[in-house]
Fold these 2 entries.
Entry 1:
Amino acid sequence: MPLNQTAREAERERIARHVLDLVKERGSEIPWTVAMAESGLTRARFEALFADYDDMFDAVAQTWLAPQLQVMEEVLATTLPPPRKMYEFFRRRFVISQERFRADPQFFSILCEMGAANFERVRSYVDLADHYLCELIAEAQADGYFAGLEIDEALSMINQMVTVYTMPDALIYLGDKLSEKKLARIVDTMFIGLSGEAGADASGVNTLKVAS
Amino acid sequence: MPLNQTAREAERERIARHVLDLVKERGSEIPWTVAMAESGLTRARFEALFADYDDMFDAVAQTWLAPQLQVMEEVLATTLPPPRKMYEFFRRRFVISQERFRADPQFFSILCEMGAANFERVRSYVDLADHYLCELIAEAQADGYFAGLEIDEALSMINQMVTVYTMPDALIYLGDKLSEKKLARIVDTMFIGLSGEAGADASGVNTLKVAS
């Protein structure tokens, strides 16, 4: 009997959670056939839920990233001033990752590796985060911040400067060097300093001085 | 016949270059025994040059990172204004990595993996770069930049904000999104915005507003 859409989604999520538990338990990525065998479902039923490994990975990624999506949406819905709003946009996701990392560093590392190895499957999450960040940048520009920059330019610069707080792997090699306080400083530094004029002093295009 | 110190260094470097050629040719890390067999040296002679794999890896890393060390020292010796000097400090190393990445992305990736897997062996390079950056920060602070921050705090913030330009792996996943122009903007953004006061707006400690 085919499942209706809601029941099918719920069943996909149930299996995705089970796959995550197996990853945690066994300390490795779970192949398609193992996931099927461990699911307790018949092959036909399993294949009716997931077209292939990639499709199953999508469900796992969606389940794992659901809290991040939720906090991004919560922050977008607030009416905080732009610097605070952008800080919260990054901070809340960072806190989720940091808690997960601290709770089980090995499990966290494996999930980072899985994400890197299946990057195309998590791209839609990255794209959505970029989309939301563009909204925040537009709001900030309406208040006079990031003057003289196209939204896409500001997006790229901001993403680069906060990379260590958005890329989960950074927790593995930086650990306690990452903190909410430093993130707040970085966000303010960007709000104070980032504009279309930044770059001229550093690269020397505004003077006759040459570097060497 | 034991080699004198100079001849021994030269011979270590010669073998290190050969190992790098082998990594490039075969597309994989070169084990100790293979390096020995391919060196054309007797086992006794090889073991007189390198105590063990780690010691050989040190020689390989030293050879690979020599250009970076050289440009850091060149920049430190200049009398450029602080923003330009710091920009050059990061830019010149970034350009070396970018050229190497573009010349042979696969070889570059393997070396990144080797560096990550043997991080303790490249730590002295990272420590030296930090040491030099502290000098640049002290010079900048003498000119009034980064006010109200301890050198170590400024060091950590700056390293975090330019991570994508110093961590070679970033070239693999960001590629042409990294540019000298953006790096110049990031450096200026830090010089304009980074101080002990940054962080209060973003985190809201200066107001009664709360985030949620």
Entry 2:
Amino acid sequence: MKISEIIDILEQYAPTILADEGDRPKVGLQMGNRHKECTGVVTCLDATLDVLKKAVENGCNMVVSHHPMIYYPLQKIDEDEVNGEAIAYAFRNDITIYSAHTNFDKCEVGTNASLVKMLDGKVVDTFECCFVAEVEPIAVGNLAKKVASALSDKSVKVIGDVDREVSKIAVCSGGGGGAFSYLNYANRNADVYISGDMPHHMYLEALGRDFPVIEFSHYASEIMAEDVFKSIIGDKVKVIKANQPCPFRTLEEI
Amino acid sequence: MKISEIIDILEQYAPTILADEGDRPKVGLQMGNRHKECTGVVTCLDATLDVLKKAVENGCNMVVSHHPMIYYPLQKIDEDEVNGEAIAYAFRNDITIYSAHTNFDKCEVGTNASLVKMLDGKVVDTFECCFVAEVEPIAVGNLAKKVASALSDKSVKVIGDVDREVSKIAVCSGGGGGAFSYLNYANRNADVYISGDMPHHMYLEALGRDFPVIEFSHYASEIMAEDVFKSIIGDKVKVIKANQPCPFRTLEEI
Amino acid sequence: MKISEIIDILEQYAPTILADEGDRPKVGLQMGNRHKECTGVVTCLDATLDVLKKAVENGCNMVVSHHPMIYYPLQKIDEDEVNGEAIAYAFRNDITIYSAHTNFDKCEVGTNASLVKMLDGKVVDTFECCFVAEVEPIAVGNLAKKVASALSDKSVKVIGDVDREVSKIAVCSGGGGGAFSYLNYANRNADVYISGDMPHHMYLEALGRDFPVIEFSHYASEIMAEDVFKSIIGDKVKVIKANQPCPFRTLEEI
Amino acid sequence: MKISEIIDILEQYAPTILADEGDRPKVGLQMGNRHKECTGVVTCLDATLDVLKKAVENGCNMVVSHHPMIYYPLQKIDEDEVNGEAIAYAFRNDITIYSAHTNFDKCEVGTNASLVKMLDGKVVDTFECCFVAEVEPIAVGNLAKKVASALSDKSVKVIGDVDREVSKIAVCSGGGGGAFSYLNYANRNADVYISGDMPHHMYLEALGRDFPVIEFSHYASEIMAEDVFKSIIGDKVKVIKANQPCPFRTLEEI
Amino acid sequence: MKISEIIDILEQYAPTILADEGDRPKVGLQMGNRHKECTGVVTCLDATLDVLKKAVENGCNMVVSHHPMIYYPLQKIDEDEVNGEAIAYAFRNDITIYSAHTNFDKCEVGTNASLVKMLDGKVVDTFECCFVAEVEPIAVGNLAKKVASALSDKSVKVIGDVDREVSKIAVCSGGGGGAFSYLNYANRNADVYISGDMPHHMYLEALGRDFPVIEFSHYASEIMAEDVFKSIIGDKVKVIKANQPCPFRTLEEI
Amino acid sequence: MKISEIIDILEQYAPTILADEGDRPKVGLQMGNRHKECTGVVTCLDATLDVLKKAVENGCNMVVSHHPMIYYPLQKIDEDEVNGEAIAYAFRNDITIYSAHTNFDKCEVGTNASLVKMLDGKVVDTFECCFVAEVEPIAVGNLAKKVASALSDKSVKVIGDVDREVSKIAVCSGGGGGAFSYLNYANRNADVYISGDMPHHMYLEALGRDFPVIEFSHYASEIMAEDVFKSIIGDKVKVIKANQPCPFRTLEEI
């Protein structure tokens, strides 16, 4: 099967038309050659050098990542830099990299849909990359523990009243913690907001509104993409999950 | 003593000329009246409504905060919004709010200088709000535990090799984790970078460079401002620390 | 009756959707608390400190102004500054300020509609904040005297031929004298343009086109807002007009 | 004498280097041919069609104006438009137009220096196009009458306390009434601000600051340019003043 | 016949609504007076001084050019500059200049339609100023010779494989060689791209794509506008072609 | 010898500090790995796929080009596109690409200095990438022939008077024909301007000024870079010239 055929299958699930406007040029084939025969796929969150090496070790010439590898436009490709080293390795080893980013966040089998499912919720509304879902009434503190357990995320934090019972949750996978518009939307449409990469001033805004927030790690909220990509294309081609580790360790893990 | 005199003393330590250009209009008297007699000061990280109430309860009509209260320019002041509620309360209770932000980050008694001291270091270089210091050789993991202990911060994370011995640290209080230029500077001039509010893609950049990073919480790295402000003006006027709590709770604190 | 109910009534007459795009964030509740019981309203052109004081003296906790009080976004609220002093006074005295600006200019009972009525005209066309109306044929000089008399405005000026008979007038309340697009529209659709705040180069443009212009004072053309606001809400709540004086004096009034 | 030689003389008095940056491309030879023999000059405030006709009637082939004729960059020159008609007339009649604008405002014999002199003041400071001068103590109302009389300006207005005695005046010829930075500078450095083209919201700012302002007409404050230009070049070439009339009439002049 | 009537006829063929958005203000009457009686027209590519002189010598008071005379907005009209000298000459000699630019490129009798016709093609598609047409199969080298011969253009260049047979051509009159979007469109929809003003990096792009390009001179590809304008209005008024020469000479023409 | 050492030698001749500001990020190591041992260098104008293949065929792992390979920042590297195919080939074959662009244009042994030498001139002034030189008096037509002969450029064009004798020439290698500021500088400081990539409206500007211009091909004016790079590093490492052909053919070369 050709790489372009694998892409066609992925895009049936996550059409590129769903991607945010600014994300559009980075979504799709990021690097490489769509016409080659696919010898196997490694699925991952980020196409890091370690992931590319795993592909080579396993005889796979395609990597499907959630995050685009070239995030900022390139003016040079110096192997002394992180991106340059990975790009060089990819070309030298004939690996083609494909990314499904905000189109995957929003699609029916994507990260947000997965999160809602892991929390036993039912989607009732969406706003860009933010999904609102209904769950059985639960205290915020217990919901935080459920999130931590479902995502195996030891770094979960809670902002606000842990005892308040909530039944409508707003979820945004990845780094939706910095988007004011998402917090606003969540506040108007849900009882609690669950997202990652949240800076200090957002904690204050949530506290000031008396609106509970649960923060997970960006990584933990999207690593299931490895599984989802595998489930989509696993019956067409050899697929290996990168089993990419969390990029940080908490105090107790040191 | 007049409020303006308190301000003069604070600005001897943290001259407003040190503030970043974009920060300039927000640094200094943020709200209120510099000509009133000061009846007492509450020092804090953020001039939240809770802090303002503590000022009133303690007969203080001045709040000295590290973060500017009006962070984004205002077009209306609606009491239904977080900022509006606090501004209204401040005016109704005759509280004047003064902020020392990036000028305080950089000054000799400021947040970064304090962090270096808490880690038993000696400043050898600075770059905007980032300080480089020399410390006794220590493994990154142990340094992370030292940071956690010094700041009473249970949320400390480590990115990269915990066993590597380091002796030159780059520290940026608050949310320096999102500034690529700081990571670059730290990477070129130190063995490890220590800062807060770090989004996922910075973890990857640090891992890709094999450059260790320790992430603390924005709050924990700056809450000592309460003490520093108190030490500067405590002998001139009644000063009460807000003892502002951390805005989030970790899993074990729920 | 709650302040929010007074707002609802005003917005039935001047829906915020009518406001210019750039004006949108400043129109509506400008400052204060919509949930309080309304103890009385002072209507005015500008919510100056004098107006706020009148509200307090008369036991009114709401001010309805035509011009938004926060015209330029605020980065600090220093009581040493004009805006800061008024904002502080408003909050200390629990006054809520509501503004209907360009939405009121354009609505059926608004400033432009009022001007046309005062000049015995009949609206036949509109363009943004500019209204075209038909009047009985009249010489430009006499029309200027009629404007001066209707608005009690001693500062009225005439540009161009005073003897020319006109029957189609274009009117723009406030400071429409600086908008080239309004002059153009008036020139194509009317015999004379009537507006305020006109800079020198607009006089030349009008003279060059041989298109007569009558300039009134911004104040005189909008002070009737005090009356209109009163007529709208006067039967629901105590309403006092500010009777705000003209901000300038002509030579003969010194 | 060649037109270029007349220009050289004018620029000894008002060097183009003094002009504001944005004004630079419009200052100097605005239209025509610097190499022709000068047959006479008409001096004026604005190079309107009437002024150009006066030049032709008097055998003059040069017009020296204070305001640049091409104020907004041109993309077409249609004789149906005000500017186009004048440009066409100028070329058809071989008239060269020269403008000294902000460089003339600021120079030693320019509009601001002239205004100070007419008010019996002595310049003590300058800021861009704003001059501060000391005068004999005088009440604001009387100063306004003196301005009106010196400039023959019936439209003079006063904002604020007419009885306050002032001795330090800030003057800005033309349309300095709309520049917030000038009001600020005047407020910090003088007792009263005198300028033209002042919109309504500046009246409020001045009233709020309790800072007196006198508003003259833009025209009246700069028409003396006709005389000054004449005095500079009158002994080298035939010079006729346009005696350009005020573009508006007040109520009593109708 | 009035000049405005000539304009009406031209705009029936090349409606200004067809012009590119940025081109809109420069298309139409560029300079002069539409109300005069037309004494004759000179048609040309560029309204240079030589062309204007030819108009005068032949008793014509109108010039119809393809390129707008005022290409960059004017801030002064100095006769020492190229544009200023021509504008002055035009007004002194009562010449009105009319331009049909991108509206003429795209219209049914315009430059692109003419080019297609000269190459015996049939238009099948259009994209902005680029026309795709079908021709009898021909080798690229022979097509280049045909272009050179049809346009009498000795400077024609070929990029890529001269022997490849092509039957679908994309043509863009004038300077379409610098527009990446045109090359892209041509590459997707035709076998060869034919245009002018092509910089070096476009040659490389074409070679890299193995997509043949033929470059003609901007002048040669549009000089037929002289004829087309004449054919449109020649029966209404005296029309003389400028017979404007090519602005450059090739080596063999020196 | 390491690639980084070759770079050091090149930058002694063409320091990157000389590069234009916008060109800075693209100058220097464009792609690859500076730490490898250099097995040979291919010098060229453009690092096209053909040039990269020549490097491989000749056992060279470094390409030194005048033009940067990544001219527009990249957001993806698709092998279906011209740039993507070349980048992939470079990495797969371990080729490192180094570019010296505007720094090389301006340096003492660079393209402009070379052009002046080929025309037997002596540099007397410089302005950005434009050099002024004195030559023996020569007619413009003959100078054009000399340029054509020196550069073996059959596409040379002449604009203006071929018989005029000139002795001061302004030269700008590459595509300086589109830069208005260069034409201005040349016109004020030299008798003739010599550059490439000249669009039609520049011809008109030159003709209107009666200022002669000679246009060469961008390629022909810079291909000598192959030789210069070789002469700089040829004694340190194996160096092969790409002998890159001209990207276009003239009519007589078809």
